[in-house]
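Friendly challenge for the regulars: who can give me the structure tokens for this chain first? No prize, just bragging rights.
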Amino acid sequence: MITNSLSRYTTDVASDGTIIAVRKEYSEIAVQTYIVKPGDTFENLAAKIYGDSSQHWRLLDLNPQINFTFDLQANDRIRIPL
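First reply, four minutes later:
Bragging rights claimed.
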């Protein structure tokens, strides 16, 4: 099994040799609550956290209550990794 501590997913190999993604439970990931400030986007938060704005999907994945990256609003409470 391959594990990336920054992702909610690990990979495993099925009996037929197929590589599959296995989603970790939220409780397995160390997170903190962040209160969104005006002008914050998942992209700029990902750039600060991961050093790469294209990794915004990781933040979306940790916050399933937000359906789309543009739905992020000031004063929303979101999970971000420690």
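The helical segments are 42-50, 56-62. The beta strands are 2-3, 9-13, 19-23, 31-35, 77-81. Your move, everyone else.
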